[in-house]
Amino acid sequence: MGAHTVLVVLYEGVQSLDVTGPVEVFTGAGNASGRPGAYRVVTASPGGRPVRCTSGLRLLPDTGLDAVGPVDTLLVPGGPGTRARLSDGPVLEWLRAVDATTAWTTSVCSGSLVLAAAGLLAGRRATSHWACLEELGKLGAEPTGTERVVVDGKYATAAGVSAGIDLALSLAGRLAGDPVAQSIQLLIEYDPRPPYSAGSTASAPAELVARMRANGLAIG
Amino acid sequence: MGAHTVLVVLYEGVQSLDVTGPVEVFTGAGNASGRPGAYRVVTASPGGRPVRCTSGLRLLPDTGLDAVGPVDTLLVPGGPGTRARLSDGPVLEWLRAVDATTAWTTSVCSGSLVLAAAGLLAGRRATSHWACLEELGKLGAEPTGTERVVVDGKYATAAGVSAGIDLALSLAGRLAGDPVAQSIQLLIEYDPRPPYSAGSTASAPAELVARMRANGLAIG
Known about the structure:
Two copies of one chain form a homodimer.
Chain A: E1 4-9, H1 16-32, E2 39-45, E3 51-52, E4 58-60, E5 63-64, E6 73-76, H2 82-85, H3 89-99, E7 104-107, H4 111-117, E8 125-126, H5 133-138, E9 142-143, E10 149-152, E11 155-158, H6 163-176, H7 178-187, H8 206-215
Parallel strand pairs in A: 1-2, 1-6, 2-5, 6-7, 7-11, 8-9
Antiparallel strand pairs in A: 3-4, 10-11
Helix pairs in contact in A: 1-6, 1-7, 6-7
C-alpha cells in the first residue's frame, strides 16, 4: 500500500502556525504507528515559489501546485493571504480538481473561506477563525461557532490558527487509530496550559473582543 | 526607543512547531499593543543557510548567526537537531556571547539542553521535553518536571514542542502587559481542546508512556 499523502497548500500571507501544527502531527503518524513512511506530508505553492508567512517567516515548498501527484488528505491553512485566494480562479479550480479524489479535504482558520469560495462547502457545516464565521456563511457554508473542529462528510474544518493541532490529532486518530494520535500528542507534549483565559470570544474579556472586532484583524 | 528584537535560532533538525508557536505570538505583539514595529522577530541559522525541520519543512532564515545585531530576547527551539548542537563549540560560544546582553534568554523543548550545554543554566531551575529532563540535570540545570514554563531570573524554559506557545504568551504578558498577551491569544484562537488526554506522562496511558520510553523518541 502506498503512503497516505497529506498535501499542505502554501501561499503568500499564510499563517505559519496553521501550517506547522498539522505538519508536526501528520509527520509523527508514521513512526507512532510503527510504519515509518506510511504518512507523507508534502507542501506545495503556486509555481513552487518560496512563500512569506504573516510572521515574516519564509517557507520553501516541496513542489508546485501543478506538480502534485495523488492527494489523500488536502489541507488549506489560513492567514491574511486567503483574501487574495478567494478570487484566484486557477487556485480554486485546482482545489476542485484535487478535492474530487481526496479521502479528506480540510482547512485551518480562514482556509475554510477558500474551500467555500471553491464551492466545496456548499450547505455543509463548517467552521473558521471566529472573525470569519459571518463571511463563511455568505460563501455558502453553514457556520458553527462553538466547535473547535467540525466534520461534515469528508470535510473537516478547524477554528482559528492553533486549532489546526486539534484538527490534525482528530484526523490522525481516524486515520491511524487512537493510540497513534495519543502517542503524537505525548510526543509534542500537547498538554496546553495557556497563562490566560482569552482564547475564544466567550472567554476573553468582552471589552477586548469588542475592540478587536472594531479595529479589524490582521488575520484573514 | 528601538524595537524589541526576538532572535530565533534555526538549525538542521529543528522542530517547526517550536519555532512558529513563539514566532506567531511575538509578531502579534506589535499590533496588539498599538505599536506596530515595537517587536521584531528575526530568524538566524549558522551561515544563514536554509534549514530542514524534522517534519521535512524547509525554513529560510533572515540572516546568519554571525550577522545578528543586538538581541533582547533569545529563543532556542528544540528538535532532534539539538543533539549535534550540544558539542558545537562555535554555536555554544555564540550563545554565551549573545546571552551576555539579553533581557531574556529562552528555550522550547530540548532547546534547553543547548542552553545548559553552553553553561547558561548552571544551578538554575529549568524544564525541557519530558524525555530530556534527566539529561538536562546532567548538564547542570535543576530540572522541574511538572511546570509548563519555568522562569529563573532572565531564563525562561518551556516543556516540549507545543509548550512554546504558552512560554511566548507568558513572556508577551511580561513584556507588553496582560491585555496585549490576551489579544494575541484571541487572535490565534488559542482555546485548546485536545481530542485526547495524552499530552503529559501523567495523563497519557501508562502503557503508551512506557513504550515510548523504551523505544526512544525521534525527538531530541
